[in-house]
């Protein structure tokens, strides 16, 4: 397929020239902005577009968008169509604005790590529909996954580091009834973790791992289900099947060359083959094997070997280095987005099943059966340069992000006599990575908006120095032609988003019910606030209510351990109180009805004020106390 | 003045009832939103308002707004009128999204503290105009101040903890030619820090301190100028004089009762007096005394005592517990916003000078001369309940935030025959704290917009759990009546903002010039990348360019010290590269042309991938290497 390679490199060249021409010369600012406007509203449309995204004070947005925050380690909540940032949900990084990572419980959950690399948020599903219960998110850096409860929008569990797995990129991509979420190795390593082997022995000693994390259907608690040991390929992006394909899980690969050479860039060694793979996993089948005891235990994980027991894991060839794989709303098709190819490839799930039954394999690669490309492929859509991800609407169209071309392609969904074809394209500013549509990865997409998550913004905003923000652009997909409506600048780095209709998230808690506070150290009346010394430990039970912290004086000795249990006894929405101790590195923000605990050593003698850090009332400034640390004699 | 007290308490009661009525019953959601709409655009205005805040993709905002992030420790850059968040500038809190606090230099700058409490950003001024050079911000919690360079929007210096000072709230409030910025004690303590004394001895042994931090006019470097020891009052909010009052600095006080009683809330003990003070400091005069050697050294600081040497520090009585003090654009007036009073008080700088010359003092309080209220007051404006801050426009009007009333009052500036009078009021959602106008604290305010920074948002957004965001609302002040245009939800907690016309910030760096990289460890060609062992230290010189990190293999032994110098050798705008090491708690983001260093102990054996965390190119996923840590034998 040399023509594809040629097109790719010519395309890359054009894109690079365009980028250089438009960005390195400051005199080009105006020209650059004009280019942006290729995709921007025509003057006549401006009033109409302004109204579409305008949400007057007091009105609410129609959709929640949950954006991953990349290496910020957090999740961001936006409202659509206004694209207003509403809330930061801290997940893998301490966040003093809400006190996350400072109280004993959240500190323990972070396990001594101070950042993560969030990529792919996943809303819990029931029968392939978002059910509004939980939001999961992966940490690519340290191989973890987290659960956010959508009753209070707080991180409740961090699971991991997952054994045997390094780089957890193809995650979370949960099954369509939330039985499992997944993790997969982006960077193969010798297993178990802690084993050192040189890259000279990469092909033999490094391993990939796909990890199924079980989700408790009652409360969402995650636990290690099982793992599949895989060849040392790089596992990239995934999607779970739904309906007919509901027992299956798909993940793209790159570097199926299975090489890592000291001194030679992976970008070269991993781009030799014309095709890499989409791996199709019959997760229900593997689960059955695990139940039968067909596994080896490695570092506490039940590890299944698909080479020893064939029949559950297959490779589907896909144009080189595919990035996203996306299962259609009806579950009948899966789409490979070959990032170094000018097309997306449509594969038929039915044909895959037939090829597997008939053992219609081209070869085995490192023990994994590779089905014949021709046996499973249905169509190739010439979307343009650098397709990364595809999402769906409610009218039978798909939308593919084109990184190299900086565009979104709209194409018609085929099958059943309908033609597979390109129908529209719109320029994007710039280098779009992921793309999200309203409930677009469920069994019933909602249409209306597409959110383009762009890697580069290149001065489409006021200058803010070399650390430029990412760009998010909203596309109106309600008509036959796409319309670029508005632009915002999400926090680094929105790798993916999920968009859910607001009525799916019900019963959000705004004040914790007093009766439900199970913390044995809660006190509900300032009169019960107290300081008790036990040996070298000083224990404090503190209340917060407008406008005092009680006790307002805590005395201890240098070197004492101090444990403070702080209860916000407010019963009114929005009445947060902060708890900061000057000079001591603590800032908590108990929500109304919540009790949080802080433990530290009083290692600095002197008088250290503590105070409410959340402006709460006309007498907020007076909400203050003193920690008096008597020096060692 | 018992009527004032009565009005205040009746007002508080009404406000409290209104808040309870509108917030505790979920059935009130609709009613609550209707109330919001009191201040929201009428239906007929919606199209017009939408257009006013709409900035189409590719167009730029007119103004920068720099918002303090409260206990998040950061600064946030918004564009106005769109109210879009463009960038987070990390200041006192590590921020893995840009790698701040992870490389050796920024880590050292943070000094082991992981949060701050930013309150009052201050743009550098020349002759009372913003000059676009630097942005300063205080840390209320640990008594620090920071400088951000507006060439690259990065934090370049953190100064502090400032000696003798606890709680640095009335900060930074720089002088009108940026000679000094200030810090002041919000929570008096025994000095020097480290001294323990019980609150029983509060009046005698606790001290307030006003601290002048000198700013180097060449490069903005901050250093400790001098301090003034003050009575143990709480120093709240400040402003520097300008033009005629340019040698003076003003700060409000509360708790001039000078009491702190164990078990008794400060909100009660500090609200006994009808009046507290605005302290007026002749900083130029004190500077002269310091130069003459008239100081005592305490903990390395040159401390001036205004009781021993009178003539430089005076108290002006102001309605109880004043919050903001604001100097008018012409420098002739200063305004006290008595947060427990229904009026703002206008004081004349000329009258103050006369009263001082004539020693027209009512008394001395703890040694500080108190000028007669009648001698310096000019007018009282009945703005409404809970005035906190006042800002100015270009047409002779002032705008005061009313916390208790949740409103903004517009009033006419008097003097020279013009009447001092209220002209308009608009409801705000809810509990407005600070307020900012376009260059409104300079000698030439620009008018056009007022930005209301509200403490509570109370469900004027999609539900996001008990930790609700703050609310920011944009008011169009171009016409005779104020119009509430739009609402956004800034990160916690926007205590104050400064708004600057975009053309004032010039020559923003987007790519660091290679020739200006003075780091001795920069390498500019992947061929020069290398690993060198020196004893138990492994030193690495690494390059980053699309799409490889070189070296791509680093070998070391468990327990080695590893020092990595990472240079981003890109020369194109926006081509950031990340540098994350799986399992090791490091994530850096060198900007194009920047070299950053990371030092750590290789304490975890095994194979640990490192990779680019900032999606940079079509082959970003391949931008990867391995740290191989051979285990101890």
From TrEMBL, chains A, B:
Keywords from the named record: Copper, Metal-binding, Signal
Name of a matching Pfam family: nos_propeller
Q: Is Signal there in the keyword field?
A: yes
Going by the entry's taxonomy, the superkingdom of the source organism is recorded as: Bacteria
The record's GO molecular-function terms, alphabetically, read: metal ion binding
Q: Which residues form the signal peptide?
A: 1-29
Report the GO terms under cellular component.
cell envelope
Q: Where in the cell is it found?
A: Cell envelope
Give the protein's recorded name.
Nitrous oxide reductase
């Amino acid at each position: 397929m040399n023509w594809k390679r040629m097109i790719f490199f010519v395309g890359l060249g054009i894109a690079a020239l365009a980028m250089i021409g438009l960005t390195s010369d400051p005199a080009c600012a105006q020209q650059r902005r004009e280019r942006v406007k290729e995709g921007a509203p025509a003057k006549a449309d401006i009033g109409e577009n302004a109204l579409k995204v305008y949400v007057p004070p007091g009105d609410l947005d129609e959709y929640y968008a949950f954006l991953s925050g990349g290496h910020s380690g957090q999740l961001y909540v936006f409202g659509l169509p206004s694209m207003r940032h509403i809330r930061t949900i801290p997940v893998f990084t301490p966040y003093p604005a809400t006190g996350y990572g400072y109280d004993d419980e959240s500190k323990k959950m972070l396990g001594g790590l101070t950042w993560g690399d969030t990529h792919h948020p996943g809303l819990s599903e029931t029968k392939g529909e978002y059910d509004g219960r939980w939001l999961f998110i992966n940490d690519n850096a340290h191989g973890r996954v987290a659960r956010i409860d959508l009753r209070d929008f707080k991180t409740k569990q961090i699971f991991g580091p997952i054994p045997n797995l390094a780089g957890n990129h193809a995650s979370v991509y949960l099954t369509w009834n939330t039985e499992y979420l997944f993790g997969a190795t982006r960077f193969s390593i010798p297993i178990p973790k802690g084993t050192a082997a040189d890259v000279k022995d990469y092909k033999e000693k490094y391993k990939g791992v796909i990890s199924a994390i079980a989700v408790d259907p009652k409360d969402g608690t995650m636990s290690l289900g099982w793992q599949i040991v895989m060849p040392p390929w790089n596992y990239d992006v995934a999607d779970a099947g739904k309906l007919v394909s509901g027992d299956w899980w798909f993940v793209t690969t790159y570097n199926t060359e299975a090489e890592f050479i000291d001194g030679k860039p992976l970008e070269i060694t991993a781009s030799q083959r014309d095709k890499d793979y989409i791996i199709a996993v019959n997760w229900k089948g593997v689960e059955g094997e695990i139940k039968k005891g067909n596994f080896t235990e490695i570092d506490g994980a039940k590890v299944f070997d698909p080479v020893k027991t064939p029949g559950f894991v297959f490779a589907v060839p896909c144009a080189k280095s595919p990035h996203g794989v996306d299962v259609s709303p009806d579950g009948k098709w899966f789409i490979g987005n070959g990032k170094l190819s000018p097309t997306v490839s449509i594969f038929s799930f039915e044909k895959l099943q037939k090829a597997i039954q008939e053992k219609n394999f081209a070869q085995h690669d490192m023990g994994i059966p590779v089905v014949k490309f021709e046996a499973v492929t249905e169509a190739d859509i010439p979307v343009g340069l650098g397709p990364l991800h595809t999402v769906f609407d409610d009218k039978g169209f798909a939308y593919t992000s084109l990184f190299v071309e900086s565009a979104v392609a709209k194409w018609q969904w085929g099958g059943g006599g309908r033609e597979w074809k390109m129908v529209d394209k719109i320029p994007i500013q710039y280098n779009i990575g992921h793309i999200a549509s309203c409930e677009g990865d469920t069994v019933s997409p909602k249409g209306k908006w597409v959110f383009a998550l762009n890697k580069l913004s290149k001065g489409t905003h006021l200058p803010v120095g070399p650390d430029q923000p990412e760009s998010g652009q909203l596309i109106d997909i309600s008509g036959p032609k796409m319309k670029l409506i508005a632009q915002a600048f999400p926090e680094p780095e929105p790798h993916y988003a999920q968009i859910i209709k607001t009525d799916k998230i019900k019963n959000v808690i705004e004040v914790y019910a007093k009766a439900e506070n199970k913390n044995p150290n809660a006190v509900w009346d300032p009169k019960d606030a107290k300081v008790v010394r036990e040996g070298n430990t000083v224990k404090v039970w503190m209340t917060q209510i407008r406008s005092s912290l009680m006790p307002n004086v805590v005395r201890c000795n240098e070197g004492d351990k101090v444990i403070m249990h702080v209860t916000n006894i407010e019963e009114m929405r929005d009445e947060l109180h902060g708890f900061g101790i000057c000079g001591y590195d603590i800032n908590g923000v108990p929500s109304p009805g919540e009790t949080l605990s802080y433990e530290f050593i009083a290692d600095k003698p002197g008088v250290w004020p503590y105070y409410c850090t959340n402006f709460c009332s006309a007498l907020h400034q007076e909400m203050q106390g003193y920690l008096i640390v008597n020096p060692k004699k």
